[in-house]
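Researcher: Go.
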Amino acid sequence: MFSLEFLITSLIVVLIPGTGVVFTVSTGLVLGRKASVFAALGCTAGIVPHLLATVLGLAAIMHTSALAFQVLKYAGVAYLFYIAIATWHDKSAFAVDGSASSTTAVSLVLKGFLLNILNPKLTIFFLAFLPQFVQPATTEPLMHLMVLSATFMVMTFVVFVVYGFMAHVFRTAVIESPRVQAWLRRGFAATFAGLGSTLALSEK
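Model: Structure:
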C-alpha cells in the first residue's frame, strides 16, 4: 500500500533535526532513556492533529485562512521561547537517573505534544506531502491516507527514540562536567529560540 519512495522520503524528513528532535535529545541527556521515550511519544502524538487535519481536509482551511495560520503560528512561537527561557534559567544539576527528577512522564508527553501541535507548518507540510503517495487507482483513498499517516508516525517515534538513546550514551560525560552541562543548556536554549524565530519569520 506504500511505496519505497514514500518510506525513503519519510525517513529523510524524520531524520532532519527539528523541534521534536532537539526536545527528545535534551530529555535523553538530562533525564535518561526512559524519559526520552516519553518525550518521543509526546512529539509523535503532536503529529496526530496535523495528520487528521490533512486526512479530513481541514488543512485547506489553514492554507487559505491567514488568521487561523497566524494565530497558531504565534502560539507556537511563544511556547518555543518559553521553553528556551526555562531551559536557559534552569541551574539544577542533570539527574543521574529518571527518579532523581521531579519531571513526570505526563509532563514530558505534554511538552512534546505541545511543541508539535503548535506548529502550523506541519499541517501545510502534510497537506502537500501525503497526497503525493496516494495511489491514483485506489478505491479507498481515505484508508490509504490513514495507513500512510500511521506509517509516518511509527517511523517518527522509532527515530526519535533512537535519538534519545544516543543522547543517553553521552550522559556520563555530561553529568561529570558542570561546564559541559552549562554549555549544553545554553545550546538547547539558543536552539529553541532559533526555531521560534524561524517560525515567527516564516511565510505561509
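Model: The chain has a mean pLDDT of 76.
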